[in-house]
Automatic annotation (TrEMBL):
Coiled-coil zones: none
Gene Ontology terms describing biological process: methylation
Protein name per its UniProtKB record: S-adenosyl-L-methionine-dependent methyltransferase
Annotated family: Belongs to the class I-like SAM-binding methyltransferase superfamily. Cation-dependent O-methyltransferase family.
PROSITE patterns registered for this protein in UniProt: SAM_OMT_I
Biological classification of the source: Eukaryota, Fungi, Dikarya, Ascomycota, Pezizomycotina
Pfam families the UniProt entry points to: Methyltransf_24
Length: 253
């Protein structure tokens, strides 16, 4: 009897059935929110406000988003997991953790990369530094990581508060291999500039929804497309857009 065809998730990501079930449940909940009329209307209003009044955010928007996943889509998460595994990333910074869904994928990759290195007799350490400003979201993220269990335990460090401050605190890794920017768009470039001095040559940087809200990313995109800043970059054609950049600074920069 032929074996059943594995799901796209199990083919891409190495994890226990329990973690796969958790991720499937979280993605389903996030997708349901994103496809709701109220959420579509919210995004449309934000774009209209930007085009008409140059308004990028408001306190009411914070209230609306407080209980929203705004998680990376499953295919993007799988892609990032594979990139992290392929590159052997040991230290990852995730700017904008929300309910911690994508964090699980990144932590799986880092944990498995550490195990690979230890199997070769090497002494290594690594972690995912996650950031979240909203306390209720941070609490939900911790619940999800606890549910994921040993496969991510001990790999994630959550820094609560303004990431422009928490990412400057002591204890940051000297070298960062991978940066995910999944945050309020005006924060993308300031966050990149904080982490850039720590990026190793060949480090990967992702920014989400760079097609859907491209005008809001103008400063960030101008920066990474400027050869003087050391990035090679391309748009990966996922829903909403996904900018993938590799840090390849010239010698002496």
């Amino acid at each position: 009897m032929a074996s059943p065809t594995p799901s796209a998730s199990s083919s891409a990501v190495s994890a226990s059935p329990r973690v796969h079930a958790l991720l499937a449940r979280l993605h389903a909940a996030s997708t349901a929110q994103e496809k709701s009329l109220s959420q579509s209307w919210f995004y449309l209003k934000r774009l209209i406000a930007f085009y008409l009044f140059s308004s990028t955010w408001a306190a009411a928007a914070d209230d609306h988003m407080r209980d929203k996943f705004v998680a990376l889509e499953e295919d993007k998460c799988q892609f990032m997991y594979l990139i992290a595994r392929n590159s052997g990333a040991l230290n990852i910074v995730e700017a904008g953790t929300s309910f911690g869904v994508s964090t699980i994928y990144l932590a799986l990759a880092v944990g498995q990369n550490i195990a690979d290195q230890k199997a070769l007799g090497k002494t290594v350490a690594g972690r995912v530094i996650a950031t979240e400003k909203e306390p209720t979201k941070a609490a939900r993220a911790r619940e999800h990581w606890t549910e994921a269990g040993d496969e991510v335990a001990g790999v994630i460090e959550l820094r609560e508060g303004d990431l422009l401050e928490t990412l400057k605190m002591e204890g940051m890794p000297e070298q960062v291999d991978f940066l995910l920017l999944d945050i309020w768009t005006p924060m993308a470039l300031p966050t990149l500039k904080i982490i850039q001095p720590r990026l190793r040559k060949g480090a990967v940087v992702f920014a989400d929804n760079t097609t859907m809200v491209r005008p809001l990313y103008k400063e960030y995109l101008d920066y990474i497309h400027d050869p003087a800043n050391g990035f090679k970059t391309t748009e990966v054609p996922y829903s909403g857009g996904l900018q993938m950049s590799v840090y390849l600074p010239r010698e002496g920069n």
